[in-house]
Backbone:
């Protein structure tokens, strides 16, 4: 769940950077951006951020299946482990 939230935040920041790179002449920010990070470099950074954000948010967070599960004998408090069953590879 945390990866999805981080992914959404990174993608949203990428959209903001892409939007700023497109309309940088009309938008006035309270801070200055270095001259190197203008135009196409800023647009590429925004696109990379969007792609990374989408990849983070799409990743599934399925629970991993254990490799071995115990086999019990008996019931209640008198259960004892008699072996282990392998699951998958």
Residues:
């Amino acid at each position: 769940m945390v990866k999805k939230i981080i992914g959404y935040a990174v993608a949203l920041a990428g959209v903001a950077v892409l939007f700023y790179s497109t309309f940088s002449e009309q938008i006035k920010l309270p801070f200055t951006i270095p001259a190197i990070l203008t135009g196409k470099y800023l647009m590429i950074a925004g696109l990379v951020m969007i792609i990374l954000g989408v990849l983070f948010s799409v990743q599934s967070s399925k629970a991993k299946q254990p490799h071995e599960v115990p086999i019990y004998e008996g019931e209640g408090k008198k259960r004892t482990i008699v072996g282990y069953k392998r699951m998958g590879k």
